[in-house]
């Protein structure tokens, strides 16, 4: 929502900053800020500068070094802002530039900061072959489909992978279909966790509550499934209708969004009216899910006594998540606010036909926000 942001500042960059930052800084130096800056093209992902890792307050984080190897994601899930920012097609950094950053970032434990590192069959294998023998431990976010590939997992283990974060989202097939997460098949989840474990790699499961198909049973059912399937760690978030996403347009059309206070759009507060429970029941359910999954008995039950998983990292993640879920207690749902006078203007509109048609319908036809 760049026009709203512009009412609070001198300049707003829409989309990726790398191709316009020089122009913006020149204008700033000359005292001639031009309001909105938008690149006409997407960055080719070549020649990206090394981030200033020395500026990071490292004592505040478990994961301290993030390296990006690609941008984009094929999935186009209705609740996700990724396709609006980076598109549905992957763009890749040259492998030698990726390795150079990893070798010179000052850390030997690295998080690969891609939307889906396993997004295509061959590219991640190139990166992982280049990582072999460099004594770097890494983790990455992936989707479930290519995490089933034994050769992919074998290369991951050989190249130093210790953990894969996987967006499972829900254990309901109908819910996943309704949000276009077609790649996920809940009947395969438990076997996938077991397969990843067999390569000595931990599974961090990402789940979301508050979908229209969720009722009050979803919290305990999901946690029971996670414990029985031996997930190493889980994060439970509240569905958040980010402006410009299909979920946003659908909820806006149905007059279900209660709060437009963007500080509440944090995957923790409830900013809309859920379909099958009250907002407070959703908030309490998410808290209960965290408390049950990270209870002392659950941690003891899930501890990896056998196999090659990294036990010290396992303990750090579980204690960090347990502490975080306790200290970030959300006292209430978001307070109602007036609707903003600005429409979302996503930098990129996904090109999938079903996505575009649904957004246009939910938005009431083409308008300036579709430009």
Structural account:
By secondary structure, the protein is α/β, with parallel strands linked by helices. The protein has two domains: 1-41, no CATH class; 45-366, pyruvate-formate lyase- activating enzyme (Alpha-Beta Horseshoe). 35% of the residues lie in helices and 13% in strands. It has 14 helices and ten strands. The protein has helices at residues 2-6, 21-29, 82-86, 95-104, 123-131, 150-158, 173-178, 189-198, 218-228, 246-253, 279-293, 296-302, 311-327, 353-362, and strands spanning 11-14, 35-38, 66-67, 70-71, 91-92, 109-112, 137-142, 161-169, 202-209, 233-238. The protein is globular.
Concise description?
Helix content is 35%, strand content 13%. The chain is of the alpha/beta class. The protein has 2 domains: 1-41, no CATH class; 45-366, pyruvate-formate lyase- activating enzyme (Alpha-Beta Horseshoe), CATH 3.80.30.
């Amino acid at each position: 929502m760049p026009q709203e942001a512009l009412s609070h500042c001198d300049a707003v960059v829409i989309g990726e900053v790398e191709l316009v930052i020089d122009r913006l800084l020149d204008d700033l130096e000359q005292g001639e800020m031009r309001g909105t800056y938008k690149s006409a093209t997407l960055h080719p992902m070549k020649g990206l500068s090394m981030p200033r890792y020395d500026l990071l307050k490292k004592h505040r984080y478990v994961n301290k070094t993030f390296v990006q190897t690609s941008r984009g994601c094929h999935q186009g899930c209705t609740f996700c802002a990724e396709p609006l920012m980076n598109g549905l097609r992957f763009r890749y950094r040259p492998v030698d530039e990726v390795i150079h950053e990893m070798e010179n970032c000052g850390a030997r434990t690295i998080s690969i900061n891609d939307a889906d590192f396993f997004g295509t069959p061959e590219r991640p294998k190139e990166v992982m072959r280049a990582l072999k023998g460099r004594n770097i431990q890494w983790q990455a976010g992936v989707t479930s489909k290519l995490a089933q590939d034994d050769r992919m997992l074998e290369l991951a283990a050989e190249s130093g992978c210790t953990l894969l974060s996987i967006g499972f989202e829900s254990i309901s097939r109908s819910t996943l279909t309704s949000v276009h997460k077609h790649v996920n098949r809940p009947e395969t989840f438990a076997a996938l966790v077991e397969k990843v474990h067999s390569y000595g790699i931990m599974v961090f499961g990402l789940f979301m509550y508050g979908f229209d198909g969720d009722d009050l049973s979803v919290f305990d059912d999901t946690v029971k499934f996670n414990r029985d399937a031996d997930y190493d760690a889980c994060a439970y978030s509240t569905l958040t209708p980010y402006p410009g996403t299909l979920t946003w347009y659908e909820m806006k059309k149905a007059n279900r969004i209660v709060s437009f206070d963007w500080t509440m759009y944090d995957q923790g507060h409830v900013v809309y009216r859920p379909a099958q429970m009250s907002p407070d029941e959703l908030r309490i359910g998410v808290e209960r899910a965290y408390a049950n999954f990270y209870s002392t008995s659950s941690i003891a039950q899930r501890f990896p006594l056998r196999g090659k998983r990294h036990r010290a990292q396992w303990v750090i993640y579980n204690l960090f998540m347990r502490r975080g879920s306790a200290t970030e207690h959300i006292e209430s749902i978001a307070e109602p606010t007036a609707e903003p006078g600005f429409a979302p203007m996503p930098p990129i509109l996904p090109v999938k036909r079903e996505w575009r048609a649904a957004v246009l319908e939910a938005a009431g036809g083409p308008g300036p926000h579709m430009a």
